[in-house]
Amino acid sequence: MTENLREFALKHLTDYYDLLRLPSISAQKEALPETAELLVELFNELGATRVEKLGSFESAPAVFAEFKGNDPTKTVLFYQHYDVQPPEPLEKWESDPFEPTIREGKLYARGASDNKGELISRLVLVKYFKENGGLPVNVKFFVEGEEEIGSPHVAQIVQENREKLAADACIWEGGGKNYVDNYQIVGGMRGITVFDVETTTADIDLHSSLASYAENAAWRLVRGLATLRDDTGKVLVEGFYDDVQPLSKAEEEAVFAYDFDLDVAISRAGLRRTLKAEHKLALVNEPTMTINGLTAGYQGKGVKTVIPHMASAKLDCRLTPSQDPKKIAQLIQEHLDKNGFEDLKVRYRLGENGHRSPMSDPFIQLVLAKAKDYYGKQTKYLPNSAGGGPAEVFSNELDLPIVILGVSYAGSQVHSPNEHIRLQDFGDGTQLLGDILVEFGKN
Amino acid sequence: MTENLREFALKHLTDYYDLLRLPSISAQKEALPETAELLVELFNELGATRVEKLGSFESAPAVFAEFKGNDPTKTVLFYQHYDVQPPEPLEKWESDPFEPTIREGKLYARGASDNKGELISRLVLVKYFKENGGLPVNVKFFVEGEEEIGSPHVAQIVQENREKLAADACIWEGGGKNYVDNYQIVGGMRGITVFDVETTTADIDLHSSLASYAENAAWRLVRGLATLRDDTGKVLVEGFYDDVQPLSKAEEEAVFAYDFDLDVAISRAGLRRTLKAEHKLALVNEPTMTINGLTAGYQGKGVKTVIPHMASAKLDCRLTPSQDPKKIAQLIQEHLDKNGFEDLKVRYRLGENGHRSPMSDPFIQLVLAKAKDYYGKQTKYLPNSAGGGPAEVFSNELDLPIVILGVSYAGSQVHSPNEHIRLQDFGDGTQLLGDILVEFGKN
Q1: Domain B5-189+354-442, architecture per CATH
Q2: What percent of chain A has pLDDT over 70?
Q3: A393-412 burial by CB neighbour count: b if 16+ within 10 A, else e?
Q4: Most buried in the list A45, A54, A116, A181, measured by CB within 10 Å?
Q5: B99-118 burial by CB neighbour count: b if 16+ within 10 A, else e?
Q6: Distances (CA, A) of A173 to A51, A121, B233, B273, B301
């Protein structure tokens, strides 16, 4: 039934080039209403039964669309976003970032991978089924315009539109082929808590000749931070690991089978030191604590012999899906208080819950089976990625499994100049998605 | 013999206003050759037997002058500088910083205290003796033009002009009345070693989702630095205190009699924490280690979840006069190496030896006795100040005692807007210096 989908997708890709031409850069609030409006038109053309803008109409509304399927009892929700990262540095692009260009089997444009190319794959999919017997199941689109600036309004929009967004399963954006070109499916994301640690020891910086009696904010910060983590990366905060939940046996096996080569990672980044022997398990199911930045005193050229009166650090903790971002920040403050560093103040900046759909969920199993049919048994499954994203509010509010799969590959240069996808991946990924919908309609 | 010196000094202060009018800002290389040239003229007018520029003629030469005294077997060397700090912020000045102005018994100008006012005091002194029976002893002036930028050429100039500068004693610049208006004499300075500690853990910053295996330069720096000093301020580096030499009993008594009130220091700087009970002794004869600045990763607004690949700290150690700056930096590197932080590199920036003339030296005793005669027995003596300066090369190369005394007071706002001296201090300080020369000539 989806025999020609791959070819259809490649043929009709160009129908949606206008999406790639709009410079919808959320960080610069550029072309966002226009892109949302274009999406509304495209969804209407494709025969959506309902199209709506959700959230702020003036700035970057999310666009919702609903399509009826042959089996009206089943619904799949697609999460996408239409905003992109700024294209700078422009001089590093080999073609105009906002003029989609095909070279050597690759489609180049800002957003070609993240996330307009994939959005086009799903639009083409709907068009295919419109012309070939109809969608097997209901399909809903949620396309936001603020993903690249941290999805500040998604939680509220989802909470306010729970019934509209109701579905049986969600297919998330992102993903595709991994660095050894095996197709990869992901069942979740780690959470994160982001906070500052600050201390003030005086009203003003003092001359360092007074260091015999005047305490120093930088020393307080350094000594307090040093109590938080040991040299192996283990976090020394009481209760930090309490809410980490073990993986199932099947998930653990999937993690060990996951393609990750530490030596490759080391040589790519020129890494001088690594932390964990069991780095695959750690990436999926261990929380971390990272100093993102340190600031104190004089940082200019040459020498200035001052005692800094203020010092601060920016930190984040990547959390396993079962951990609570605010609770972790609170545990860290309690640790500092207990260890004589009550002058070091933890300032909570933001947090995002992690999320992990059980690998045993029937929809996840269906997706995995179809992917293995299409890409072969070397297809990989990761229970959750090392990074984060706003998926948890969907799984929590809508009570559905979420699976991440896409049409990109490890070389897509997401967020960088010359972002692209390979046309073969675009065709294959669209074909797989069609196969999944058809299979879901059968059960 | 010096009966009218105080009045003479106050009357003739205005003769030297041109010195204060020249904006000889060494940090901006402004008006330095002109000021050196004016000094040459002034010294010649005063009847110097020898006047020479030492060091670089183009930029900021030091000016040397020699005056013969009635007792040709004794020589006192005056160390001064003619360069000043930039006057900014200009809007905070109540009168033009380069137009000397008297208001309510105070002389306002950039350099009025540091160091042109004091230089004028010593020029007026020579003029007085020229008109009143001649100088009791030989007097030499060494007036440099780079003190405010760290005296980069003084050591070389002194080494190359050892015989020219030869003297029996040196009277250094700076000082006067302390914060409770007692006159204060200082016999030395602490040394200093200034260095960076740097580490690099990768070629690039990495996304913090990789913190499960990728080590972080900021964590390395924080944990390494934390091993260097404890929470009481004690330095934990092996051998750090080995070369500290005890004060004599008389020096220790002088330190305890020194005017220093920790509560005043605390309230002035809004200090939240202090380190030492014996803070007077610590300020004089304990080395310190200070973090001057910390730099790593992202320090901008908001959040950036990166693993910094580089981190660095700027530090200084204030050293007691008997410690060697380079050796201390080396001990710190050895400590880091021994404690598993061989990736943290100590980069030596600069160092200055401290210096302390023995309080028992006859010239120091003579100065102290004359000061007590003039200012009363509440006059204080400090074996060395908490800060530093380029005195050690003079004591070391010329083998002479050095004593610091001047015509300023604690409220002189050195390096700040509205820098000034009180006319009474100018008169008194000049009178004392005359008494000292006369007494020195007698012995």
Answers
A1: 3-Layer(aba) Sandwich (3.40)
A2: 99
A3: bbbebbebbbbbbbbbbeeb
A4: A116
A5: ebbeeeebbbbbbbbbbbbb
A6: 20, 11, 53, 52, 28
Q: Residue-wise over A33-54: b if at least 16 C-beta within 10 A, else e? A: bebbebbbebbeebebeebebb
Nearest CA in chain B to A282: B212
Q: Which residue ranges make up each domain of chain A?
A: 5-189+354-442, 191-244+286-352
Contacts of residue A265 in chain B, CB cutoff 8 Å? 210, 213-214
Q: Tens of pLDDT along B126-176?
A: 999 999 999 999 999 999 999 988 888 999 999 999 999 999 999 999 999
Q: Is the C-alpha dihedral spanning A334, A335, A339, A344 positive or negative?
A: negative
Closest partner residue to B208 (CB to CB) among A212, A233, A316 is A316
Chain A residues whose beta carbon lies within 8 Å of the beta carbon of residue B210? 265, 283, 386
Place of tokens 């969920």: A361
Residue type, B402: I
Q: Which residues of A touch B265 (CB under 8 A)?
A: 210, 213-214
Query: Residue B294: its chain A contacts at CB < 8 A?
Result: 218, 221-222, 294-297, 299, 308, 311
**Could you give the CA distance from residue A247 to residue A234 in angstroms, rounded to a whole number?**
19
CB pairs < 8 Å spanning A and B: 258
Give the ipTM of the model, two decimals please. Answer: 0.91
How far separated are the first and last CA of chain A, in Å rounded? Answer: 16
CB A36 within 8 A of CB A145: yes
* Phi, psi angle pair for A206, to nearest 5°: -120, 160
CA distance B286 to B417: 32
CB contact under 8 Å between B215 and A265, yes or no, is: no
Collapsing DSSP states into helix, strand and coil, what is residue A385?
strand
Place of tokens 């060990």: A256
* Dihedral sign, Cα of residue B87, residue B91, residue B93, residue B98: positive
- 8 A C-beta contact, residue A205 and residue A297: yes
8 Å CB contact of B272 and A343: yes
Residues of A with Cβ-Cβ distance to B201 under 8 angstroms: 271-273
- Mean pLDDT of the A67-83 span: 97
In whole angstroms, what is the distance from residue B165 CA to residue B151 CA? 17
**β-bridge partners, A346:** A197
Q: Are B404 and B172 in contact (CB under 8 A)?
A: yes
Distance from chain centroid for Cα A357: 15
Fold of A191-244+286-352: Alpha-Beta Plaits (3.30.70)
Which has more confidence, A88 or A318? A318
Q: Choose among A202, A283, A292: nearest Cβ to B212.
A: A283
**Nearest residue of chain B to residue A222 (CA atoms):** B222
Taking an 8 Å cut-off on Cβ atoms, the answer to whether A211 and B289 are in contact is yes
